[in-house]
Automatic annotation (TrEMBL):
The keyword Cell membrane does not apply. Catalyzes a Baeyer-Villiger oxidation reaction, i.e. the insertion of an oxygen atom into a carbon-carbon bond adjacent to a carbonyl, which converts ketones to esters or lactones using NADPH and/or NADH as an electron donor. Thus, can convert bicyclo[3.2.0]hept-2-en-6-one into the oxidative lactone products 2-oxabicyclo[3.3.0]oct-6-en-3-one and 3-oxabicyclo[3.3.0]oct-6-en-2-one. Is also able to catalyze the sulfoxidation of methyl phenyl sulfide (thioanisole). It comes from Streptomyces griseoruber. GO terms for molecular function: flavin adenine dinucleotide binding; N,N-dimethylaniline monooxygenase activity; NADP binding. This is Baeyer-Villiger monooxygenase. It holds the Pfam family FMO-like. The keyword Thylakoid does not apply. Belongs to the FAD-binding monooxygenase family. Keywords: FAD, Flavoprotein, Monooxygenase, NADP, Oxidoreductase. It comes from the Bacteria. InterPro entries: FAD-bind_Monooxygenase_sf, FAD/NAD-bd_sf, Flavin_mOase-like.
């Protein structure tokens, strides 16, 4: 049996829950949130590794419509963020709309009915509009390392942490040096017998100015909500002022780079180790990481830093590209996610019978980060070129929710069975403008290879401007950028059955 709804939201992380709240605020209650897991939280449910925390201040990494005066720290941990999302779910009455255990296997556009037919692991759905909020950090990427199947020990990705396996006293190999790895390494180092870090590229690391939020501060925020908004506004404003250094004048980041080098010099006294940990690209080209404990952990006697990527595994021996060998009982992959090749794209079949992955074979592109040509009434939250390098993704999500809300209002005004399909020319024009602006950003000129770039070397991930600019660009839907589709009228059958006539409304 197929359940028909006005809107189907895919995913229950920040994007999906935000979409659900906005739908209710728009008076739309005929919707479901399809979630493959058994609880809400998205990446903050899946990433429960030791030391997991956010690198954006808590009061900025939360919805503007759901401020939390009780954040325990300025940079809160995974358990607090997940609890916040559960709180949002309950506060806004989203439980009746949630459908757990419903992983999308395929969604196909029905041009006759102007709807999406959705097959999930928990049943079938039909939706007039789909809001895809699966997020870019949802499907872990594990490299295809030769010999991995010969490894006799335990292997897992940081986003699929094996909490049933005790690592105390074990020889652990950490693969990768991204945002997860710099939190995992200090958390594991004191308890393992040996920790070997395979580092393909060293990150730039700045101190993390984290502290407990005092009881007096929390009491003030509860008593005077305006103080919470002021705190959030200040955090936002500081980051808006920083944007031009990333997007227009990368050389202005030289001062920040000197501070990062000073942080490294103060933390690592061994010249040889310090040399291995010194990046050779402009700071900001990869995401700047925040930690007070990463460098001190690497300086401990039970830690080895291999300044080369993992290239082969021979039983329990791990071999780096430079020939360095290390023995391990456990391998932890902190190797990121399928960001520019999201698996969900292979499961979305558009109006022409082409999958979204096929449409994006030369690179992801969506009008205002939301609509892809050939995929009517389908919208993405955190779509192409909506990522940020220095601020909170919640700001971008809320801008996309504004766009989603106006999209649905436009459909309501148009009336009847209608759909909007982004015009290829509009998508191309938007993407050309984004890519032109991207040319002078630090992400494209900084001399690094990052997960911001796709297989063709194009930056299809990050937004090359301020969050204010993006909010203005997504405030309203411009119908000139879309083709209006109407459902075909019923076929009239001739009395003798010899002929047919079809009228399109």
């Amino acid at each position: 049996m197929t359940e028909h709804v006005r809107v189907a939201v895919i995913g229950s992380g920040f994007g999906g829950l935000g979409a659900a709240v906005r739908l209710r605020r728009e008076g739309i209650t005929d919707f479901v949130v399809l979630e493959r897991a058994d609880s809400v939280g998205g990446t903050w449910r899946d990433n429960s590794y030791p030391g997991c925390a956010c690198d954006v201040p808590s009061h900025l990494y939360s919805f503007s419509f759901a401020p939390n005066p009780d954040w325990p720290r300025t940079f809160s941990g995974q358990e607090h963020i997940r609890a916040y999302l559960e709180h949002v779910t309950d506060t806004f009455g989203l439980r009746p709309h949630l459908r757990f255990g419903c992983e999308v296997r395929r969604m196909t556009w029905d041009a006759q009915e102007l709807r999406w037919d959705i097959e999930t692991s928990g049943g079938r759905y039909a939706a007039d509009v789909v809001v895809s909020a699966t997020g870019p950090l949802s499907d872990p990427k594990v490299p295809d390392v030769p010999g991995l199947d010969t490894f006799p020990g335990t292997v897992f990705h940081s986003a699929r942490w094996d909490h049933g396996h005790d690592l105390t006293g074990k020889r652990v190999a950490m693969i990768g040096t991204g945002a997860s790895a710099i939190q995992i390494v200090p958390a594991l180092q004191p308890g393992v017998s040996r920790l070997t870090l395979f580092q393909r590229t060293p990150p730039w690391v700045m101190p993390r100015v984290d502290r407990a939020v005092s009881g007096a501060e929390r009491a003030l925020h509860r008593a005077l909500p305006v103080t919470t908004r002021m705190r959030r506004g200040l955090l936002w404003g500081i980051r808006e002022l920083q944007v031009q250094a990333f997007t227009k004048h990368p050389n202005e980041l030289g001062f920040v780079e000197r501070l990062a080098k000073l942080n490294l010099a103060l933390s690592i006294k061994d010249p040889a180790l310090r040399a291995r940990l010194t990046p050779d690209y402009r700071i900001g080209c990869k995401r700047i990481l925040l930690s007070n404990s990463y460098y001190p952990a690497l300086a401990q006697p039970n830690v080895d830093v291999v300044a080369s990527g993992l290239s082969e595994i021979r039983g329990s021996t791990l071999v780096a590209a430079d020939g360095t060998e290390a023995e391990a009982d456990v391998i932890v992959f902190g190797t990121g996610f399928h960001v520019t090749d999201m698996p969900i794209a292979e499961r979305v079949v558009g109006a022409g019978g082409q999958t979204l992955a096929e449409s994006w074979k030369d690179g992801m592109a969506a009008l205002r980060g939301a609509s892809a040509a050939g995929f009517p009434n389908w919208m993405s939250i955190i779509g192409p070129n909506t990522g940020l390098g220095n601020s909170s993704m919640i700001l971008m999500i809320e801008s996309q929710l504004n766009y989603m809300a106006d999209y649905l209002r436009q459909l309501r005004v148009l009336g009847g069975r209608a759909a909007l399909d982004a015009r290829p020319g509009a998508v191309d024009a938007w993407n050309a403008c984004v890519q032109e602006r991207m040319k002078r950003t630090v992400w494209n000129t900084g001399g690094c290879t990052s997960w911001y770039l796709d297989a063709n070397g194009r930056n299809t991930t990050v937004w090359p401007g301020t969050t204010s600019e993006f909010r203005r660009a997504t405030r309203r839907v411009d119908l000139a950028e879309y083709e209006l589709l109407r459902a075909p009228a019923p076929v009239a059958q001739a009395p003798d059955g010899a002929g047919k006539s079809e009228v399109t409304a």
